[in-house]
Sequence to fold (157 residues):
Amino acid sequence: MIPNEIRERLQNIVDGTRLEGSADRCTTLRNLLVESFGTGSTVKSEFESRAIIKEEQANFLKAWAESTGSLFDDLPERSAYLTKGGESKVYLAADGLNVIKVNDAIYYATWDEYLNSLLFHNLLFPNTAHLLIGFIEIDNGLSAVLQQPFIEGVRQD
Fold:
């Protein structure tokens, strides 16, 4: 069962309501995007037409990242490439305790939808929460740089 406080926070994300009480980058940026661009769900038929909004949001995020020192030229030092999944390139952080994920939000019509998905994940799965540490430009496109605890899976044969 999901506690009422988490239910309310999830509903606020869905409704596009400003999220109060969190100072993390993901929440801050999500609030800024919602205030600047509005919010709305995207159906498959609208995905391509929302590309203009996503590009405007990417420019907004890049400017924000530049102004806060969160736009990286390179990944954190001594990050070792591990794998590429559907959404992210994954690197082992130098501390060996975390992974660094680079995600271009390709599966999302807008950046606010991507940030909402991170917030959903963090509320429902706090042990594997993503920490948004900044952005990086790769192949002329903006990607989010996230940190997440490294959890080694157990292989069952």
